[in-house]
Design goal:
Order of helices and strands: HHHHHHHH
Number of strands: 0
Keywords: Membrane, Transmembrane, Transmembrane helix
Helix content: over 70%
Strand content: under 5%
Distance between the termini: 25 Å
Protein name: HMP/thiamine permease protein ykoE
Organism: Fusobacterium ulcerans
Structural class: mainly alpha
Number of helices: 8
InterPro entries: ABC_thiamin-permease_prd
Radius of gyration: 17 Å
Length: about 200
């Protein structure tokens, strides 16, 4: 698979399972939050607030493995497992995973999977946000909203993406590397997360 080693396949698989549980939990929490916000006409924002959670595999796992294809594969695997566990939106989530993973994949590929600075992680998260928002238009789910509503939905989703899939994933991976658990990877060996060209 690409230029992956066996340890890469195992690492991607492990974290894909972990994130699938996180993703599914976020779905149910968003549904709960939507019922609270519905009386105020703000139900869509329940999902936008948490949307960045659903991109986390596509930034966290590539930061660790640092090989081509990891962003897409980890996001798709997480989505697949999530669907198997009972995501109410069904198999369409898998296609969403492909699209969401492509954004970060392109950002990381541009720097040959060597730049995982905080800025680049946030750019990757933003790319996932943009890709997912375009996908929302293609699916037709946004036609019922006014332009101003869509603008605010995008802003909230962008902030969520940068916070969860950019900042939090960057910090979490760095902390994990600091424990020595990633000694088989560049991130763990260098113990210096600012890997820039």
């Amino acid at each position: 698979m690409f230029n992956w080693k066996l340890k890469d396949v195992i690492m991607v698989s492990i974290f894909s399972v972990i994130f699938s549980f996180i993703y599914l939990g976020a779905v149910y929490f968003a549904n709960f939050l939507a019922t609270i916000l519905a009386p105020f006409g703000l139900a869509p924002f329940a999902y936008e607030i948490l949307f960045g959670v659903w991109f986390m595999a596509s930034t966290f796992v590539p930061y660790i493995v640092q090989r081509s294809g990891v962003a897409v594969v980890s996001e798709v695997l997480s989505a697949l497992i999530e669907v198997i566990m009972g995501n109410m939106f069904g198999p369409i989530v898998i296609l969403s995973g492909i699209i969401q993973g492509m954004g970060p994949e392109l950002v990381f590929a541009k720097n040959k999977y060597r730049n995982f600075s905080m800025m680049n992680m946030c750019l990757a998260a933003a790319a996932a946000c943009v890709a997912s928002f375009i996908w929302g238009f293609i699916r037709g789910g946004f036609v019922k909203y006014s332009p101003m509503m869509l603008l605010w939905m995008f802003i909230v989703r962008l902030i969520s993406s940068v916070v969860f899939s950019g900042i939090i994933c960057k910090i979490a991976a760095d902390k994990l590397a600091g424990t020595g658990a990633l000694s088989g990877y560049v991130l763990g060996q260098n113990n210096d997360p600012e890997m820039e060209d």
